[in-house]
Design the sequence.
């Protein structure tokens, strides 16, 4: 049961990160299998049944462009970031950094003095709120 | 001759293609095919030999069932989206509450209180129950279709996002003072009711007014009188407990189940009585007939109310007992 809850939460957490990783990797042109390998080499293995539908969705949303081209005597579909995708990637990266920094601050060791603890929490909460807005 | 790996992959792709939309089928299959063949080549390069049929089969197995693979490429389909779903469920509950549950309760009530005629009525009741389900499923279908249509239309408009939080209804808070006042009022009126009930045998005009000179109570009242007094005492006792122990939230519904069961017994006795009042003189015959008919109708209505009460209090008791077993949730500030 606990494991199932963790697995669901992990998938939720991973879903957004995968989009970011795919967009980031597609700053340079890749075809599906090569993209999968590239992501895997960076420590982010992605299932083909997740990757290809995701690529299509991102293309439908105008964040990617693709075309078929022959390479090594085989037709392959190459993807890369569209101009709109570049802007979105930049925005998402900023959002990701802000979230990550906020979580780091929340997880940082708390000072022992109660008043100091309260001040740190209040300031972190305020910053998080500002960043999320 | 076809390589076993190629044959298996082609068969796999064909199976996946069966579930794909026609306009995207070839494109998606070409991409899956390319990925599969790239993976196959990589694996063969690692091993330095061609893959066996069993190894290719394992690889395809790892990819997943064709229907599931194809399903990933299809748009997520839900008839009613998350924005409308709670309203949809709410409407279904209202329909169930206002139509299906009363219908079923009446049906069970008739079976319970007319046991002697059950066999004769059973065939007719079953056929009417069958028609109820037809109506229920039709209503369910119509409501679902209407909501699906609204969902499609509203998905294209922004109307749903425009709302004013200031127009939200005010919080409904039952203060402890209000609870106490209700309990005190219940005790006061309960005691008055009890005194009134105790006075009726000596002063019958208290219940039937001037007609008391024309009719008198039938023997059935001797049977149900003390259970009625017990009910009135129980009502006062319940309000006393509410006043003194408001924390026992499970008590009122649980206690009400017991009192409703007693009510059911009384109503059952009334329904099976031949008459409720008897004329004391020739002038009273007409009055007796009217009073008897009124009480008969009232008893039939009460029978339905008793069944409804049993279901409602049963549910409330179950909910409160379950809630009392769960850890306390702190109140929102």
Sequence:
């Amino acid at each position: 049961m606990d494991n199932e809850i963790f697995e669901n939460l992990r998938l939720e957490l991973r879903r957004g990160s995968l989009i970011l990783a795919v967009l980031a990797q597609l700053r340079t042109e890749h075809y599906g299998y090569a993209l999968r390998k590239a992501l895997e080499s960076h420590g982010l293995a992605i299932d083909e049944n997740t990757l290809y539908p995701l690529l299509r969705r991102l293309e439908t949303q105008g964040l990617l462009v693709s075309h078929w081209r022959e390479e090594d005597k085989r037709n392959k579909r190459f993807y890369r970031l569209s101009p709109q995708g570049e802007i979105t990637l930049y925005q998402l990266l900023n959002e990701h950094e802000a979230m990550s920094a906020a979580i780091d601050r929340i997880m940082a060791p708390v000072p022992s003095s109660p008043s100091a603890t309260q001040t740190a929490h209040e300031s972190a909460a305020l910053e998080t709120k500002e960043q999320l807005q | 001759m076809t390589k076993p790996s190629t044959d298996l992959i082609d068969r796999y792709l064909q199976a996946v293609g069966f579930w794909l939309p026609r306009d995207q089928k070839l494109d998606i299959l070409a991409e899956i095919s390319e990925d599969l063949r790239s993976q196959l080549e990589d694996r063969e390069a690692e091993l330095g030999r061609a893959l066996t049929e069993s190894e290719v089969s394992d690889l395809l197995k790892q990819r997943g069932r064709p229907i599931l693979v194809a399903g990933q490429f299809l748009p997520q389909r839900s008839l009613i989206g998350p924005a409308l779903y709670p309203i949809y469920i709410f409407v279904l509950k209202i329909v169930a509450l206002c139509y299906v549950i009363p219908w079923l309760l009446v049906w069970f009530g008739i079976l319970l209180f007319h046991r002697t005629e059950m066999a004769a009525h059973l065939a007719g009741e079953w056929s009417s129950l069958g028609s109820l389900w037809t109506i229920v499923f039709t209503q369910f279908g119509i409501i679902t279709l209407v909501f699906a249509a609204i969902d499609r239309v509203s998905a294209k408009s922004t109307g749903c996002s425009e709302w004013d939080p200031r127009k939200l209804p005010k919080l409904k808070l039952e203060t402890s003072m209000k609870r106490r006042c209700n309990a005190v009022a219940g005790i006061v009126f309960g005691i008055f009711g009890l005194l009134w009930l105790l006075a009726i045998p000596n002063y019958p005009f208290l219940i039937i007014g001037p007609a008391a000179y024309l009719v008198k109570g039938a023997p059935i009242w001797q049977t149900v009188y003390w259970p009625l007094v017990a009910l009135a005492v129980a009502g006062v006792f319940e309000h006393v407990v509410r006043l003194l122990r408001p924390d026992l939230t499970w008590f009122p519904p649980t206690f009400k189940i017991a009192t409703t069961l007693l009510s059911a017994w009384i109503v059952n006795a009334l329904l099976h009585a031949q008459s409720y009042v008897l004329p004391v003189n020739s002038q009273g015959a007409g009055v007796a007939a009217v009073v008897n008919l009124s009480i008969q109708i009232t008893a039939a209505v009460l029978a339905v109310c008793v069944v409804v009460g049993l279901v409602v209090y049963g549910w409330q008791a179950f909910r409160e007992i379950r809630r009392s077993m769960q850890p306390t949730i702190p109140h929102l500030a």
Notes: Strands of chain A lie at 30-31, 64-71, 74-81. Chain A touches chain B through 15 residues (CB under 8 Å). The longest helix of chain A spans residues 83-107.
